[in-house]
Specification:
The complex is a heterodimer of chains A (398) and B (294). By secondary structure, chain A is mainly alpha-helical. Chain A has one domain: Formate dehydrogenase/DMSO reductase fold (Up-down Bundle), CATH 1.20.1630.10. Chain A has 15 helices and no strands. Chain B has 294 residues and is an alpha+beta fold. Chain B has 2 domains: 215 residues, 2-Layer Sandwich (Alpha-Beta Plaits), CATH 3.30.70.20; 41 residues. Chain B has a 3-stranded mixed sheet with strand order 8-1-9. The chains are: A mainly alpha (398), B alpha+beta (294).
Chain lengths: 398, 294
């Protein structure tokens, strides 16, 4: 719908409505606010130094470790764990499994915010962030770069997620005709969104293909793109279970009775999906391991660390999911979800930071400033999430 | 205009209309050979004139070669210096090796760059363009030789690496380091010619050189070539990089993108239609409508 076509008084109405909605609701001195506000303030101070005196003034990045915690955790892990949005969209819109409809909106919102904030955190890490428009406009198309693909797909997918969420915004703003129009776009957007996700989730893995001589052979393989894609499926599912557990407690007053009851059934379904994809992932890992004849690497400290990741944070949670689903043990499923999330974090850190330049003496570890800024990004995201869910109908009220 | 002429004309117009794909102009261009430098490490005396000349030409940090005792330890190129000379103690005595960007035939850094800031010029040097670079440092991740360096201090950082003195080459001069070398360790020229000279030296003095020219095939071949009296891994070279050009490692993935981009949406749409239960009827209804039980 064209904004020019909207009468001027509608714009005024919306502006007033928006200002009204901006006002905080509920108590101010919650534990979350008490913790998050000082950290956000500290993060802003750190960013001031980062943008005036350079990345070296606040980070431990070096010539050996050009990618640090901001890329390895915020961007790479944040995007992998936001995979739930395309998986749930696939299940609801393509497979038409209506059971999962009640968690659709909140999952899309989580995905959208994750992309805005975590891939947005890239701006903090870029040396010359004002040139970020170069790959989008002008004559600077690096067609042969994997990162070119990833950048465009980030951008387009964030747009797709916004379109998928837009009907909820239109409903909140009482734009009924716009909402109907936006809803009619959903299937197309979802199909494009899934395709874009497949490509950029695997594309992030493909970024390490040329780092072949630098990544420890246990973590490097030519199948990294496939592994990154598959792990984003179960990482996303685990994150949906994990977030759903927290939201169900924190925002229980916003969630309707019927949805509360059906949530158990949903968790069983998600857990089953996670168990199966994790087993497939484990099979891929085992196949790559055998095919690459990596046995001789296993009896080293790197080998043990590899086993911690693959057995401790892939195979064990995989069986925990299967056991929990079979015996309807929700505690086990939730623990498995938390372990799976940790496992995806661990895997991304291993490829990007820990097993990267593994032979270098001066290892990288994040500075406290890098951690504070990361926490700031997470907290701001939670703030925006809270603002949206308390105003728009994200949770099912039924 | 007959049919043939028409086809040629329209094909030319079509080709001209596609940016960066101007086939006609490309084929008309004179074929050009990449330039490079041959480094004979048996000749180097470790005077470090090249370090000084490089930094003076590129307006970087000029080392005090008389007093800084820099040869005591192994150094890496840095955001302050495009080239450094290292001393290695070997079975054949001290060997001095100049380190800098090797200007790969198919550079990983340029393939990594999403804005073409890292560019393999048609003359051969790999250059960096600060107006395009967004400072993502993916070139540093991709370079098998760990050459691009980043300025971590300062609000407007640059990627720093040897440019083979691209501006000087444009003026018809040689790279500053080559010109400053007092012992003819460095020889500037086209790779084909340099290879001939290098082979001539190795074949002529099989007792003096190891039978290998570093850079002939490493990482798909590099513009800089090295001769040595001792195996290359003893003088700071990585010999495990393979002979595949590094951009090849991402080729299959990049090729699969258009396939996925067209194939997957069609598949998803088909799956969506397949799972449509709107017109589904119960078994009983269907039997009656089809009139089977009559």
């Amino acid at each position: 719908m064209n904004t020019a076509a909207v009468p001027a008084n509608e714009v005024v109405r919306f502006a007033r409505f928006f200002l009204q909605e901006l006002k905080p609701r509920g108590k101010w001195l919650t534990p979350f606010n008490v913790i998050s506000i000082p950290i956000i303030a500290a993060g802003l101070v750190i960013l001031y130094f980062r943008f005036t005196q350079g990345l070296g003034s606040v980070t431990n990045l070096s010539q050996q470790y050009p990618f640090g915690f901001w890329i390895g955790f915020d961007v790479m892990t944040g995007v992998a764990l936001a995979g739930g949005a395309y998986v749930i969209c696939f299940v609801v819109y393509v497979l038409r499994l209506e059971k999962y409809h009640s968690i659709l909106k909140v999952t899309i919102l989580n995905g959208l915010l994750a992309y805005v904030f975590y891939s947005g955190a890239l701006l903090l890490d870029l040396g010359r962030p004002w040139h970020i428009i170069n790959p989008i406009i002008g004559n600077s198309f690096g067609y042969n770069s994997v990162l070119f693909l990833v950048a465009w797909h980030f951008l387009l997918y964030t747009g797709a997620l916004f379109l998928e969420f837009a009907p909820t915004i239109a409903e909140w703003a009482h734009w009924e005709r716009l909402r109907k129009f936006l809803t009619s776009l959903t299937l197309g957007t979802v199909i494009v969104g899934i395709t874009l996700s497949m490509l950029h989730q695997s594309g992030i893995g493909a970024m390490f293909l040329m780092a072949k001589p630098k990544i420890h052979p246990l973590w490097y393989s030519e199948y990294i793109p496939l592994l990154y894609f598959v792990s984003s499926i179960f990482g996303g599912l685990a994150m949906v279970i994990f977030e759903g557990t927290i939201s169900g407690k924190v925002f229980s007053n916003l969630i309707g009775q019927k949805t509360h009851h059906s949530h158990d059934d949903i968790i069983l379904g998600l857990g089953k999906g996670a168990a199966i994809t994790m087993f497939v992932y484990y099979f891929f890992l085992a196949f790559i391991f055998m095919h690459g004849e990596k046995w001789k690497l296993i009896n080293t400290s790197w080998g043990y660390w590899y086993l911690v990741e693959v057995i401790g944070f892939v195979l064990i949670p995989c069986f925990m999911f299967a056991y929990g689903v079979r015996n309807k043990k929700f505690g086990v499923i939730r623990t498995a979800a938390a372990m799976t999330v940790l496992g995806v974090i661990l895997n991304r850190q291993n490829v990007c930071l820990i097993a990267y330049n593994w032979y270098v003496v001066d290892k990288y570890y994040p500075s406290w400033q890098e951690i504070v800024v990361t926490l700031m990004v997470v907290f701001v995201e939670v703030w925006v999430f809270r603002w949206i869910v308390t105003r728009m109908s994200v949770f099912s009220k039924e | 205009m007959d049919r043939r002429q028409f086809f040629v004309a329209s094909a030319t117009v079509a080709a001209g209309g596609i940016p960066n794909l101007n086939i006609k102009a490309d084929s008309a261009r004179e074929p050009k050979e990449f330039v490079g430098v041959l480094v004979d490490t048996t000749r180097c005396i470790g005077c470090r004139s090249c370090e000084v000349a490089c930094s003076e030409a590129q307006k970087n940090f000029v080392p005090d070669t008389k007093n800084d005792n820099a040869l005591e330890k192994i150094r890496d190129t840095s955001e302050k210096q495009y080239t450094v000379v290292n001393r290695f103690e070997t079975a054949k005595g001290a060997v001095f090796v100049k380190k800098n960007c090797l200007h790969c035939w198919q550079p990983a850094c340029a393939a990594a760059c999403l804005v073409n800031a890292m560019l393999k010029t048609k003359e051969g040097p790999v250059t960096w363009n600060g107006d395009k670079c967004m400072g993502c440092r993916f070139c540093m991740i991709s370079c098998p030789f760990d050459i691009p360096k980043f300025e971590y201090s300062g609000w407007n950082p640059r990627i720093m690496k040897c440019t083979m003195c691209y501006e000087r080459l444009q003026e018809g001069k040689k790279p500053a380091c080559v010109e400053s070398c007092p012992t003819d360790t460095l020889m500037f020229g086209r790779k084909r010619e340099l290879m001939e000279i290098a082979r001539h030296r190795v074949y002529g003095h099989p007792d003096k050189y190891v039978h290998h020219i570093y850079g002939e095939n490493e990482a798909g071949g590099t513009g800089w070539l090295y001769l040595s009296a001792v195996p290359f891994e003893q003088i700071g070279f990585r010999t495990d990089l393979g002979t595949t050009p590094y951009p090849e490692y991402t080729r299959e993935f990049l090729i699969s993108i258009p396939l996925i981009e067209f194939g997957v949406p069609a598949f998803l749409l088909a799956l969506n239609m397949l799972t449509d239960r709107k017109d589904e009827v119960s078994d009983e209804q269907k039997w009656t409508e089809a009139g089977v039980d009559k």
